[in-house]
Amino acid sequence: MENRENRLIEAFTTAGGLLLIVGAAVYITGWEYSPYFYLAGSLMFASGQFADRYTGDDPIVKRLRFQQITGAVFLLITAALMFSAPLHERLLADMGMGGKMRSFLLEITRRNNWIVTLTIGAVFELYSAFRLDHISKNQE
After folding, report:
1. Residue 123's pLDDT is what?
2. Is 35 exposed, middle or buried (0-12, 13-18, 19+ CB in 10 A)?
3. Which DSSP category does 30 fall into?
């Protein structure tokens, strides 16, 4: 039963990863539905990461699992930043808002901030995936 559950989680995570890639790649073209693809993929991928549990005692594996969860959270933040472009446009047009708050919101919603969080999340996910694979091969 547990093996079947692990395969289901892996398939769900893989499908989410594919939607992540499609959403991020197509977002650059300006297609209006690409953030929705990315959002669906990030939710699927993150839920797969959260559902995959480690019950052992190895501190290295625990640290790597924490890095995977952190990477998944960064991927979810990326989805939120992809949807912030319309907010950025409204903030540029609204001159009545206070100076410091407006500057802060403009900085957060700048068009390309999503690239930074996507890169951080991808680095965490890739590093931990390769290290976990290496550790599992050494244990066998």
Report:
1. 97
2. buried
3. T
